[in-house]
Design brief:
By secondary structure, this protein is of the alpha/beta class. It contains ten helices and five strands. It has a single domain, classed as Rossmann fold (3-Layer(aba) Sandwich). Helix 2 packs across helix 10 and helix 5 packs parallel to helix 7. The radius of gyration is 19 Å and the shape is globular.
Amino acid sequence: MRPKICLFGDSITEESFSNGGWGASLANHFSRTADIVVRGYSGYNTRWAVKVLDKVFPAVDEAAPVAVTVFFGANDSCLHDRYAAFQHVPLDEYKDNLRSIFTFLKKRWETTVILFITPPPIDEAGRLMHPYIENPSGLPERTNEAAGAYAKACVDVARECETPVVDMWTKMQEFSDWKNSCLSDGLHLAQGGNRIVFEEVVKKLKEVGVSLELLPVDLPLFSEINPKDPLKSFEN
């Protein structure tokens, strides 16, 4: 059976198979070597994610995925006194929830690589232009400062769990025009942001042994099929 890489997260994961999305790019990159399975849930925070782990990853007798990405924090970091307060999760609880997700996945699949991804940076002006419900305060429901605190917490938990992490909050802000090139609405990813996530995920997975060079190719390559006796290639 072809191995799997599962993507677990919020809307940034749910939308990852859109045109130019990071999940679609992973599927293209790992074609013939691994199936990319998307488990993204728009609007979810880690508090809700912990509650549905058994439904998202049911206990069935199947091979462990080679890797699972855990990409939460953009909703947890909503401010507690703004219009999206119902999505807010306090920082300490966010860290506990990440630990719980990691522990659950490792108990289910001991050999699976768990790759944390931090929330991306926030363009507050962009968020004011794209409220998803009525915003009577006229203030952004997220700030880049808060997102940075949650990103740091995610990095800290990854180090504590001795598992790899992609710090998207820091990486995206290395680009001077990140607000326009990386984000579409101050939060979700534009093609530039998707490209960065894809490249960073591939790089981190390669560091821990999940790469095209090490994963077996599914069925004989066309170049390996003997044109004089094609069916012989399928005997083994």
